[in-house]
Amino acid sequence: MYYIICMELEKAKVRPDVREQTLRHGITYPTDEELLMLILGSGTKDVSVRNLARSIVRTLNGTNSEDVVKNLLRIKGMGAGKALAVAASLEFGRRRNSYKNAVVRSPKDVVPFVRNYSMQPREHFLCVTLNGGHEILQIRVASVGTVNQTIVHPREIFSEALMEHAAAIIVCHNHPSGNCEPSEEDIETTELLIRAADILGISLLDHIIIDCNSYFSFLEHNLLFSVEYDE
């Protein structure tokens, strides 16, 4: 018995506190089981949070997306609140990463992946990086501005693109005012980015302005003199 207790204590020392270790090493550090422990927060009187997380992993491995909540509720210790928290986390992650490897052939292909920023009360300037096949690599926020202005520098746009060896980029930003027409500052920023793109050898395919209901494409309005989308 003493030996078993010592072994359990040794195991506990390997990863002593999930929250502490995640804060120290980053969100990619935890195992799937430990990520679920962070989502759940606690277990129940009869089931520890670790055992509950372990049961959830086993259940999810054999569950189709449409049956997630139903199957989670069958686990001992899972109430509706915890089941919905896990299901909501899965759906949120799916939505945030649905753009990966999507092929961009026209401005309308990008808009669905950035539309969520149209609800932001301040301007968010985004950089969409693409590979040689115009598949989306990443969508990042390069800069956050005020209600009606975003100050962005080419280094904020191209630094990540260079690190990813991106072949092309598309820049986007939202207009909280609800009017997608570009301002003089938007046009000047685009011209600056075109010059930087030519120097760096990364194609600037488009600058897209979005609001809740529509979008404005610099390419579609012949305001962008860069490499066009593949047909």
Mean pLDDT: 86
Low-confidence stretches: 2-14
Rg from C-alpha positions?
A: 23 Å
Strand content: 5-15%
Principal-axis shape: elongated
* Percent helix range: 40-55%
SSE order: HHHHHHHEEHEHEE
The number of E-state strands comes to: 5
Give the number of helices. Answer: 9
Given helix and strand content, the structural type is alpha+beta
Strand order of the largest sheet: 2-1-3-4-5
Largest beta-sheet characterization: 5 strands, mixed
Distance between the termini: 70 Å
Describe this structure in a few short sentences.
The protein is built from 9 helices and 5 strands. The protein is α+β, with helices and mostly antiparallel strands. A hairpin with a 4-residue loop joins β4 and β5.
Labels describing this entry:
5-stranded mixed sheet; 9 helices; 231 residues
